[in-house]
DNA sequence: TATTGTTATACTCTATAACTATA
DNA sequence: TATAGTTATAGAGTATAACAATA
């Protein structure tokens, strides 16, 4: 029937590359979450800062940056904005470093963000069994925690 | 012994999130590959264009963009540069679309790029068995090919 | 009227460099 | 001398909008 053969049938040789699949999968979950976080006036990056500080009261910006892979030059305005919004406090530690902690508002927003994240995970992973999810996480962590080239 | 307890011991509650692990793993492989491709004067995106055109002679820019998730406005300068470098030809198809195909130089560079990619995959996935690699790819593709929200 | 492609432009994200202040 | 943090800025990467030409 139907001679509607306009479909190009393009082959994608990148599909059997883990690197390519990672990039597409990562972008899909990230963009979906980013849209969801707009309602909380949060970007994924500031959300991650909020969550790590929430779980590590008194952490410094440098420790935070090292953990999340964020340069100090980019961390500064990020933390400044969260403080300006009354979500986080900077307590002087020793004249050159600050201890970070969430305010009550920050903790509340953090809880809401965690709910959005949980929903995001469920949306994309409902097809995956618990065992497979654990295996997936282990494989992914093995990839990015590999000892890097010394060059 | 050693009272060198300066280590902060920061906990990262994001580690059990697939979305977070995806982002870190994706960035690790992507950045590593990008560094490698500098030697070929290619960015990961133009490399992906080169490879898909190589496997689909005569594909149009719109078909290419749809397959790779690249907007036409961003595809234009990308293809223009590859053509200017003598790696690709644009053959007028019907006055408004072009057929793309690689030149001999383009095919040669494509082969070299594929070698770099293969090395990148091996570097990060040597610990993974073939079966697990296939399972990983299947899981990742399931994530980003999910039917999206209709909103 | 919808499609293909182009140009111009804005916005976000991240990287580098230069700097201050402190340990 | 090294570390914590800040500011300014430049470079990717991607997004939107307006447009021309064609089907």
Supply database-style keywords:
homodimer; 151 residues; mainly alpha; two-stranded antiparallel ribbon; 60% helix; 7% strand; disordered N terminus; DNA-binding
What does this 3D model show about the protein?
2 copies of one chain form a homodimer. Chain A is mainly alpha-helical and 151 residues long. The first copy, chain A, contains 6 helices and 2 strands; from the N terminus they run ααααββαα. Chain A has helices at 18-37, 44-55, 61-68, 72-84, 104-125, 130-144; strands spanning 88-92, 98-102. The longest helix of chain A is centred in the C-terminal third of the chain and has 22 residues, at 104-125. Chain A is globular, with a radius of gyration of 20 Å. Chains A and B meet through helix 1, helix 2, helix 3, helix 5 and helix 6 of A and helix 1, helix 2, helix 3, helix 5 and helix 6 of B. The first copy, chain A, binds a DNA duplex (23 and 23 nucleotides) through helix 4.
């Amino acid at each position: 029937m139907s001679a509607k053969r306009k479909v190009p049938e393009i082959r994608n040789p990148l599909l059997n590359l883990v690197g390519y699949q990672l990039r597409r999968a990562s972008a899909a979950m990230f963009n979906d979450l980013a849209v969801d976080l707009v309602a909380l006036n949060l970007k994924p990056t500031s959300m991650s800062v909020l969550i790590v500080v929430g779980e590590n009261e008194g952490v410094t910006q440098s420790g935070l940056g090292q953990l999340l892979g964020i340069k100090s030059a980019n961390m500064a305005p990020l933390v400044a904005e969260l403080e300006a919004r009354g979500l986080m406090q900077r307590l002087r530690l020793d004249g050159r470093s600050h201890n970070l902690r969430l305010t009550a508002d920050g903790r509340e927003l953090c809880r809401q963000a965690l709910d959005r994240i949980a929903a995001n995970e469920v949306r994309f992973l409902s097809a995956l069994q618990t065992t497979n999810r654990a295996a997936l996480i282990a494989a992914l962590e093995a990839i990015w925690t590999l000892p890097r080239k010394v060059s």
